[in-house]
Write a structure and sequence with these properties.
This protein is α/β, with parallel strands linked by helices. Strands 4-1-9-10-11-12-13-14 form an 8-stranded mixed β-sheet. The protein has a 4-stranded mixed β-sheet with strand order 3-2-7-8. Helix 1 crosses helix 7, helix 5 packs parallel to helix 6 and helix 7 runs antiparallel to helix 8.
Length: about 300
């Protein structure tokens, strides 16, 4: 059994098509700007950020056996991500994400992650067949889990012996998919990363601060949660009653897509490096501030 990696990144790996305009935008606006295509997806973004922090991520995802899929795999491999265990599908096309960002933040986005949803548990085969792990020898390291997976598959993972020994780090793909994470909240080894809006959707109530949202998620059975709130203070809460709240550095925001993934990966890397509590949060907030303020 060989895996050559420090963390499994499970979920969406796709092409991001991002349009950015250096002015405020609203519905129906048509303005000049820049459009770029780059590797994206929650699992890929977390993996790339982990790689920048010195970790060796393994991708578990699905790619279509098409030109876009081959080019995406090559791009990921060039970043130093392990693509040996990607599921290749002849019957599915490579997923895509399209977003418009402006001075006032994310204007709109469409995520076409249907192939990941249709592939379902097929992407977990390397954890069963001995390529990475097996039921007899489950993975005992870090796992970054992407909320783009279907609700039934996330529920299956929550109860699966394949993940019982893992250090499970969970992120929603978007506010619209945040409720899918509910089965993972009480997992004995799960840390859940959400923003205040996503926390509200999971709990079915609004919160006026990240601290209130974090407390509510723990009250619903979460072992450990980290709740961000844009430029306002974020909070980490644990089932043992520990709560830490910190404000992020004030910066000019140039981009927002991938910011949450950057925060999660930077926090994971900080803890791998031996930091804990407020020190790990400060490291992650600083890395995220640099990310969003760099065009």
């Amino acid at each position: 059994m060989t895996h050559r990696g420090d963390i499994l990144c499970i979920g969406s790996v796709l092409w991001d098509v991002i349009g950015r305009a250096p002015r405020r935008m609203g519905i129906g606006h048509d303005v000049p700007g820049r459009i770029e295509r780059l590797p994206g997806g929650v699992a890929m973004n977390i993996a790339a950020a982990c790689r920048r922090e010195g970790l060796r991520p393994i991708l578990l995802t699905v790619l279509g056996r098409d030109a876009e899929g081959r080019a995406l795999a090559d791009a990921c491999a060039a970043m130093g991500l392990v693509t040996d265990h990607v599921t290749w599908a002849d019957d599915l096309r490579t997923d895509r994400y399209m977003a418009i960002e402006a001075e006032n933040g994310l204007v709109a986005a469409v995520a076409d992650a249907h192939s990941l949803e249709e592939a379902g548990a097929r992407i977990l085969a390397p954890l069963r067949d001995g390529a990475i792990a097996s039921e007899a020898q489950p993975w005992r390291g870090l796992v970054a889990l992407d909320g783009n997976l279907t609700e039934p598959l996330l529920a299956e993972i929550a109860a699966s012996p394949l993940f019982a020994a893992a250090d499970l780090r969970v992120a929603p793909a978007s506010p619209g998919k945040a409720a899918r994470l509910a089965p993972l909240l009480p997992h004995a080894r799960a840390t859940v990363y959400v923003n205040r809006v996503e926390a509200a959707l999971i709990c079915g109530e609004a919160f006026d601060s990240a601290e209130a949202a974090a407390r509510a998620l723990v009250a619903r059975g979460a072992r450990r949660v980290l709740v961000t709130d844009g430029g306002a203070a974020m909070a980490e809460a644990r089932a043992d009653g520990t709560l830490v709240s910190l404000a992020p550095p004030a910066v000019s925001v140039c981009r927002v897509t991938g910011a949450g993934d950057c925060f999660m990966a930077s926090h994971i890397a900080a803890e791998v490096a031996g930091l804990d509590g407020a020190a790990a949060l400060e490291e992650a907030l600083a890395a995220t501030a640099l990310y969003v303020s760099t065009a």
